[in-house]
């Protein structure tokens, strides 16, 4: 067979296996789920309980960071701001399809913002665990559930990482209307079993995808198709 045919075949196999890998990684291919996994394994190692990963709470965490409208300076330091308490019922819950009457108490939050994207475990230890206060929040016995979110502003830098903790009951707090979370992009949140990889959900230019498509078009045209 001609070299081009082999190339095309190889290309097809690559795409098919990439697709299969994507399906297999459905649950874990999401930086917010990976952040919850890192957090829970750290809690377990510290003999704290594993927290329930609540998708409604996590979606609220994504709305919470979106309220900063990409302004990193408002996250920490002298200009630090916090969304108003009323926003939870007025904006965050409706945007997520969370039944307002099921909003539970927030027992802790961890929030960080960086211009550079890092892996979830690095975001956990390097961005969110800044000081002893963060450790105290992490290991608190008050929490029963957790929700995490990561969002780029307008699909690019800076990147916001947010973890909200609650002491609500897993099946009766942050309940989603119809049982499904409203997926909103850009940004990823935990607990919803949705795939949310960096390339299509967080970054403006999906470089890998365009290179792959470019390569396919190139190999097709070199075959004279
Ligand atoms: C848990 O996280 C803290 C903060 O990053 C770190 O100091 C500690 O070593 C971690 N513990 C484990 C068991 O990974
Ligand atoms: C746990 O909750 C109690 C009562 O709401 C509060 O006084 C305490 O500071 C909380 N502990 C932590 C580590 O947040
Ligand atoms: C949950 O936390 C809130 C605020 O810290 C507290 O007032 C409430 O008593 C807690 N509820 C339970 C069930 O622990
Ligand atoms: C919620 O969970 C509790 C304890 O696991 C259970 O007793 C209760 O029936 C559940 N409620 C619903 C509405 O599923």
Can you tell me the CATH superfamily of the largest domain?
A: CAP
3D shape: globular
Label the structural class. alpha+beta
Percent of residues in helices comes to 40-55%
On the 0-100 scale, what is the average pLDDT? 84
CATH class of the largest domain: Alpha Beta
H-E string: HHEHHEHHEEEHH
Counted up, domains total 2
Supply Rg.
20 Å
Work out the strand percent.
5-15%
Major sheet summary line: 5 strands, mixed
| Number of helices, where a helix is a run of at least 4 consecutive DSSP H or I residues | 8
Ligands (ions, cofactors included): 2-acetamido-2-deoxy-beta-D-glucopyranose
CATH topology of the largest domain: Pathogenesis-related Protein p14a
What is the topology?
Layout lengths: L2 H22 L6 H15 L6 E2 L1 H12 L20 H10 L9 E9 L5 H9 L3 H8 L5 E9 L2 E11 L21 E2 L8 H4 L5 H17 L2
The structure holds 2-acetamido-2-deoxy-beta-D-glucopyranose (4 copies).
One 2-acetamido-2-deoxy-beta-D-glucopyranose (NAG) binds next to helix 2.
What does this structure look like?
InterPro entries: CAP_sf. This is Ferredoxin-like protein. It comes from Coffea arabica (Arabian coffee). It is a single chain. The chain has 225 residues and is of the alpha+beta class. The protein folds into two domains: 48 residues; 167 residues, CAP (Pathogenesis-related Protein p14a, 3-Layer(aba) Sandwich). The protein is built from eight helices and five strands. Strands 1, 2, 3, 4 and 5 form a five-stranded mixed sheet that branches. Helix 3 crosses helix 4. About 8% of the residues have low confidence. Bound molecules: 2-acetamido-2-deoxy-beta-D-glucopyranose (4 copies). The site of one 2-acetamido-2-deoxy-beta-D-glucopyranose (NAG) has 3 residues, from loops.
């Amino acid at each position: 067979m001609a070299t081009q045919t082999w190339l095309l075949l190889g290309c097809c196999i690559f795409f098919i296996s990439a697709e299969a890998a994507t399906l297999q990684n459905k649950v874990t291919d999401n930086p917010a789920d990976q952040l919850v996994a890192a957090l829970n394994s750290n809690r377990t190692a510290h003999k704290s309980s594993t927290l329930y990963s609540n998708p409604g709470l996590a979606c609220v965490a994504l709305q919470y960071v979106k309220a900063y409208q990409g302004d990193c300076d408002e996250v920490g330091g002298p200009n630090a701001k916090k969304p108003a308490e009323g926003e939870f019922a007025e904006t965050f819950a409706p945007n997520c399809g969370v039944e307002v009457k099921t909003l539970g108490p927030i027992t802790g939050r961890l929030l960080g913002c960086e211009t550079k994207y890092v892996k979830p475990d690095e975001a956990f230890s390097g961005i969110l665990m800044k000081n002893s206060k963060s450790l105290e929040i992490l290991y608190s016995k008050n929490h029963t559930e957790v929700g995490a979110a990561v969002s780029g502003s307008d699909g690019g830098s800076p990147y916001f990482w947010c973890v909200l903790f609650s002491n609500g009951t897993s099946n009766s707090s942050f309940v989603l209307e119809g049982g499904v979370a409203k997926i909103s992009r850009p940004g990823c949140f935990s607990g919803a079993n949705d795939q949310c990889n960096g390339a299509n959900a967080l970054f403006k230019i999906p470089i890998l995808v365009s290179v792959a498509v470019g390569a396919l078009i190139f190999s097709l045209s070199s075959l004279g198709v």
